[in-house]
Amino acid sequence: HPQNQINVWMPGSTIGILGGGQLGRMMILEGRKMGYRFVTLDPSPDCPGGQAADRHITAGFEDVEAARLLAEESDLITYEFENAEDTVVEMLESSASLPQGSRLLRLTRHRIREKRALEGAGIPVAPYRKVTDPGVFREAVNSLGFPCVLKTTTGGYDGKGQWVFRSWGEVEAFHGPEPEREYILEKWVPFVKEISVIVARSVRGEVKAFPPAWNTHRRQILHQSVVPAPVEPSVLERADALARRVAEKLDVVGLIAVEMFLLEDGTLYVNELAPRPHNSGHYTFEACVTSQFEQHIRALCGLPLGSTRLLTPAVMINILGEDTEQFQRRMTDLPPEVKVHWYGKMENRPGRKMGHLTVLGSTLEEALATAERLQGTLP
Ligand code: ADP
Ligand code: MG
What does the record give as the function of this protein (predicted)? Predict the structure, then answer.
């Protein structure tokens, strides 16, 4: 695109966010520093994003009229989750400025479409089969072997809508798949580590990637992200190149998080994509020159991207519903290199992301040791 056709939104412009969760909240906290104004749309009147926004619209994600109101009040629009209704997203795309477009959202909210797009871009993914009914399911298990994991193609997050199978006995005992739903069966990847790279591509086509994070999960929910990822330099380089390739080939605008599996022999498979700020990038708030949230805003508003240089080693720890009581007891003797993020969610449920801690250190060993001490009292 010629430079003069690219919109630049200066500080003072209003950014509308579809969704009012913690990702929206952190986008707002960063954007406000730069003087942007924010309107959020979310069904919950007191959501994390709404608490930080200039204005909040309480409405469902299927409410086209409410989305139209969001568009009217905003100079540009972004989203913080993938599951908005197509009709809403299409309306926003046609009536307002949605710099990210709707194509990437449509791809990444559907696991099979996403895998096909990745394959089309020459990016390795785990072997998979589309599953539409119990007969096809058994055939797919037969061809992929054990272990394998069945996932709903849409609507899943934090391991929800996923079932792992290790034997035919487990397949027999499984009540499903539901006939009306579409699923994907994936071969279980015997990874040695999971890593992720968040990369930004601006409306001007500029691309910058953040340093790869090493992620560990508890019950399929992200538990900890460690940066710099303790892997060979050649793995870091390849992870960076893969993520950039995804951003370029899929014409990304804004952020895309690329989750990867690292195998014993050094192979990297892409697991999944998220076209938004990502939990594994929260460390950038304190540990990089530019946070993922600021980068997202710069990318959408047509500003030059900020440096992604790592300033310090960091360990990000998620605080889930079941951790909050112990965490609150720890608050009074928090080590000085620990930064607290609390999302202001009203309801505390097990497995729900309530906040996170970022542990810094002059070396990674130091940060890891502090993180371990801190978690001595967590479950
Ligand atoms: P979501 O994050 O949307 O819940 P993911 O596909 O990322 O879904 O799955 C969550 C976690 O489950 C992954 O980070 C990984 O730890 C594990 N997992 C998912 N699919 C596979 C697979 N094919 N092989 C090995 N582990 C997997
Ligand atoms: Mg994931």
Answer: Catalyzes the ATP-dependent conversion of 5-aminoimidazole ribonucleotide (AIR) and HCO(3)- to N5-carboxyaminoimidazole ribonucleotide (N5-CAIR).
* Residue 135 annotated in ligand binding: no
Q: Which residue ranges have their beta carbon within 6 Å of ligand 1?
A: 126, 149, 156-159, 186, 188-189, 194, 217, 220, 259, 271-272
Complex prediction ipTM: 0.98
Per CATH, 3-98 and 127-187 having the same topology is answered: no
Which residue's CA is the closest to the ligand 1 atom numbered 22? 188
3-98 CATH choice from 2.30.30.240, 3.30.1490.190, 3.40.109.10, 3.40.50.20: 3.40.50.20
> Which residue among 271, 276, 279, 318 is best mutated to probe the pocket of ligand 1, counting the most ligand atoms within 8 A of its Cβ?
271
Structural domain boundaries of the chain? 3-98, 127-187, 193-375
Superfamily designation of domain 127-187? ATP-grasp fold, A domain (3.30.1490.20)
CATH code at 193-375: 3.30.470.20
Give the range among 9-13, 102-106, 173-177, 281-285 with minimum mean pLDDT.
173-177
Phi, psi (5° rounding) for residue 95? -100, -15
Q: What is the pLDDT of residues 112-123, one digit of tens each?
A: 999 999 999 999
Share the mean pLDDT of the chain: 94
The backbone torsions φ and ψ at residue 307, rounded to the nearest 5 degrees and listed phi first, read -65, 140
Query: Rounded to two decimals, what is the model's pTM?
Result: 0.96
Confidence of residue 377 (pLDDT cuts 50, 70, 90): low
Per the CB < 8 A criterion, the answer to whether 8 and 99 are in contact is no
> Does 261 or 376 have the greater pLDDT score?
261
Q: Does 214 belong to an annotated binding site?
A: no
Please, are residues 187 and 128 in contact by the beta-carbon 8 Å criterion?
Answer: yes
162 is in an annotated binding site: yes
The pair of structure tokens assigned to 192 is: 């040695």
Chain segment 76-121, per-residue pLDDT in tens: 999 998 888 888 998 999 887 899 999 999 999 999 999 999 999 9
Say how far apart CA 371 and CA 358 lie, in whole Å.
Answer: 9
Name the closest ligand to CA 257: 2
Atom of ligand 1 nearest to the CA of 189: 24
**Contact between 195 and 237 (Cβ < 8 Å):** no
